[in-house]
Amino acid sequence: MTTWKQLVFMLYGVVTKCYSLNSLCKNLLFLEDHLTYLGMDKLPKVSALSDANINRHSEVFESIYHQLPDYYKDMLRPVQCSFLVGQLDTGKIVIVDSSTISLFVDVFKGAGHNPAQ
């Protein structure tokens, strides 16, 4: 299995919150004909994806992760919001990345905290 295919399959698993390779491969069955534009000619078996995860070092994906900002730097430039200049008190603005909220919910669950109580 190529690094690209493994990356696509595993990212799909993260986005869809698949917690096992078995459930990931079952979910991929629904997309079988819709992945050709990504170069996926056939779906992986659980054992093939498991072997790829065992045999490919995580540093490969760490390297890809760290290369992404350079690759997309032109699209990630800060956007000037000139229509807001002078209208906002920048000392009172707080920006929160919403992905951290679900991350901490998962962390708290692991620590025994139940937000429903």
SSE map:
Blueprint: H1 3-15, H2 21-28, H3 46-55, H4 58-71, H5 98-110
Question: What does the model show?
Answer:
By secondary structure, this protein is mostly helical. The protein has a domain at about 5-80. Helix content is about 50%, strand content about 0%. It is built from five helices and no strands. The model has no long low-confidence stretch (mean pLDDT about 75). Pfam families: DUF4372 (PF14294). This is DUF4372 domain-containing protein.
Task: Detail the poorly predicted runs.
Answer: none
What average pLDDT do the residues reach?
A: 77
- Give the helices and strands as they follow along the chain: HHHHH
Gross morphology: elongated
> Helices and strands: which structural class?
mainly alpha
How much of the sequence is in beta strands? under 5%
Question: What Rg, in angstroms, do the CA atoms define?
Answer: 20 Å
The strand count comes to 0
